């Protein structure tokens, strides 16, 4: 499956959750730090043959986002930032994952969850203070994968 992740307050935040230890490269290029558990989560999703996308409403450049994850040894496949979103999505919606063939989008925003219900896309919502977020996502991805394969 293609799985996308929000950045702010889902993967990146200065004070809302614990962070991964800075890597050698992240220090060198001054990359932003990522949420504790992200490395384990992304590696596990890779093992399960999922593709990892980033879908953010921020204007961070695609290169900067890709490099940030590379620094931690967890490359992402595709980045949708606000520039690309504005270019591709005409609907009045903050995110629209189906446009990019994304199967499930992970976010902290209840607004995005509501948009998912309204426009028919799957979301997994994790709050910034959920310390068990990695396992919860993996469990929910499992359910989505199983329901998807049983539909075929
Ligand atoms: Mg967010």
In CATH, the topology is named Rossmann fold
**Top CATH class:** Alpha Beta
By CATH, the superfamily comes out as: HAD superfamily/HAD-like
Quaternary structure type: single chain
Secondary-structure element string: EHHEHEHEHEH
Domains counted in the coordinates: how many?
A: 1
- CATH architecture tag: 3-Layer(aba) Sandwich
How many β strands by DSSP? Answer: 5
- Biggest beta-sheet profile: 5 strands, parallel
Which structural class do you get from the secondary structure elements? alpha/beta
Task: Please state roughly what percent of the residues sit in beta strands, choosing from under 5%, 5-15%, 15-25%, 25-35%, 35-45% or over 45%.
Answer: 5-15%
Record the strand order, biggest sheet: 3-2-1-4-5
Radius of gyration: 15 Å
- Which distinct ligands sit in these coordinates? magnesium ion
In the predicted model, the low-confidence regions spanning at least 5 consecutive residues are none
Number of helices: 6
As a percent range, the share of helical residues equals: 40-55%
């Amino acid at each position: 499956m293609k799985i996308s992740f929000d950045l702010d307050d889902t993967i990146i935040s200065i004070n809302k959750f614990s962070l991964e230890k800075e890597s050698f490269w992240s220090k060198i290029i001054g990359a932003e730090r990522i949420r504790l558990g992200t490395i384990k989560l992304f590696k596990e999703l890779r093992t399960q043959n999922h593709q990892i996308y980033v879908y953010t409403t921020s204007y961070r450049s695609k290169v900067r986002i890709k490099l940030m994850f590379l620094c931690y040894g967890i490359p992402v496949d595709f980045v949708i930032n606000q520039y690309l979103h504005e270019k591709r999505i005409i609907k009045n919606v903050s995110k629209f994952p189906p446009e990019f063939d994304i199967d499930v989008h992970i976010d902290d925003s209840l607004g995005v969850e509501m948009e998912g219900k309204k426009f028919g896309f799957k979301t997994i919502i994790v709050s910034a203070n959920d310390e068990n977020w990695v396992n919860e996502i993996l469990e929910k991805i499992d359910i989505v994968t199983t329901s998807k394969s049983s539909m075929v």
